[in-house]
Write a structure and sequence with these properties.
Elements: E1 2-6, H1 12-18, E2 24-29, E3 39-40, E4 43-46, E5 58-61, H2 68-78, H3 91-103, H4 109-117, H5 125-142, E6 149-153, H6 160-169, E7 172-177, H7 188-201, E8 222-223, E9 232-237, E10 250-256, H8 265-275, E11 276-287, H9 305-312, H10 326-335, E12 339-348, H11 351-357, H12 370-374, E13 375-383
Parallel strand pairs: 1-2, 1-5, 2-4, 6-7, 6-10, 7-9, 10-11
Antiparallel strand pairs: 3-4, 8-9, 11-13, 12-13
Helix pairs in contact: 5-6, 6-7
Length: about 400
């Protein structure tokens, strides 16, 4: 039987050695573009969208179990989920991974399984914890001032960044989520339970006789840890950033894969600038790929802007509200007063794909620069200048 492995990391070697001899490994798929074109044990490493070329009988996930949910979702997007073949985990690698996570203080082992089990089509708490860690690394690199007030734009369905980050770094966090009921089932009671567990793990005091609660339906909701609590979370569901206001300014604001879904991006940028204090920082990760099919990242440029707006501007969550490219966002930030401190391009579109698809672009996009076509995802680090006088 012919199989393709998914995952070329350190665990992959163990899977190669354990796969029964009756399985023939055709290729190893991986999301790390730097590995594409290389080999592992003589087996070619390919991008996931090329799996179909090999016509495997099965796909086996050769990675740690905490990545299974995300990769399976990717297989669903690629139309390859029917090829997924469950295969026993490598228990030794799983044990080392768990020990490594705990040694970094990332999260307590007692709640790790519970968090992994909470994964569903709406994302997971673990994913948001990962994002929170990455944003904080970036914040510490570029932002030397003390940070007390954080604004998370588009917090998703778990409040994972806030629940986790607030316990490690303190301060006050405000989360805005325009589409909180997208997945219908919103297990807030599970997250408040996890909050208690995390407070115990990190030694944050709270009154055991009082419930930690989230007043979801109020417009002034919060999670309280009792009179000894040192931090605060404000959660605003069902409201867009453009409609949000606060009399007190924020030191830092974050968004991850949010801006591409916004129809009125200029209003979004203006509001972000308005909410930040002078000298405040904004961190925006933007996924520029066509979300209808990530394997065809530029296909939505075949539509004219007005046509796209008529069809998708109110789609909200899964589809782009705009068709802006890398240079458009950059120009927008500068136009409305931000200084661009740093930018990091995370993914690139291939030249072969660009050459193939660009012949069918709408006239409005025929003159796009090579950089605008190549950059598939970018992180912008922005600063609101500290104006004196």
């Amino acid at each position: 039987m012919k199989v393709v492995l998914f995952g070329a990391g350190e665990v992959c070697q163990t899977f190669i050695e354990r796969i029964p001899k009756r399985f023939s490994i055709l290729a190893i798929a991986d999301n790390n573009e730097k590995l594409h074109g290389g080999f592992k044990n003589g087996i070619p490493i390919i991008p996931p969208h090329e799996i179909y070329i090999y016509e495997p009988d099965f796909i086996i996930l050769s990675c740690l179990s905490r990545h299974f949910s995300d990769i399976y979702s990717q297989l669903v997007e690629l139309g390859l989920d029917s090829y997924y073949l469950p295969f026993p985990n490598d228990h030794e690698s799983e044990r080392k991974d768990k020990k490594n996570i705990e040694s970094q203080g990332v999260i307590g082992g007692g709640i790790l399984k519970e968090i992994n089990d909470s994964k569903n089509e709406n994302g997971s708490l673990f994913y948001h914890i990962y994002v929170g860690n990455k944003f904080d690394e970036i914040r510490r690199e570029f932002c030397s001032k003390s940070v007390n007030r954080h604004l998370h734009i588009g917090s998703g369905h778990s409040l994972g960044v806030e629940i986790y980050s607030i316990l490690r770094w303190g301060g006050e966090w405000t989360a805005i989520e325009p589409f909180p009921r997208l997945g219908l089932n919103y297990p807030l009671h599970e997250h408040t339970f996890m909050l208690k567990e995390l407070m115990d793990i990190f030694g944050i005091p709270y009154n055991n006789n009082s419930d930690i609660f989230l007043n979801y339906f109020s417009k002034t909701p919060y999670i309280s840890g009792g009179k000894n609590s040192v931090s605060k979370i404000n959660y605003f569901p069902g409201i867009k950033l453009e409609e949000f206001s606060d009399s007190i300014k924020y030191d830092v604001c974050y968004s991850c894969a949010v801006m591409e879904h916004v129809a009125d991006i200029e209003a979004f940028v203006i509001k972000t600038y308005e909410l930040l204090s002078p000298g405040g920082f904004a961190f925006h990760f933007i996924d520029l790929r066509d979300h209808r099919d990530f394997s065809k990242p530029l296909d939505f440029l075949k539509f004219e802007k007005l046509e796209w707006s008529d069809i998708y501007s109110d789609a909200g969550y899964f589809i782009h509200g705009n068709q802006l490219r890398y240079s458009d966002y950059k120009k927008m930030f500068l136009q409305h007063g931000f200084a661009i401190v740093a930018e990091d391009c995370y993914m690139n579109n291939s030249k072969d794909y660009i050459d193939k698809v660009s012949v069918n672009f709408s006239d409005e996009y025929n003159d796009l620069s090579w950089e605008d076509l190549e950059v598939a995802a970018v992180l912008f680090v922005l600063e609101k200048p500290n104006i004196i006088g």
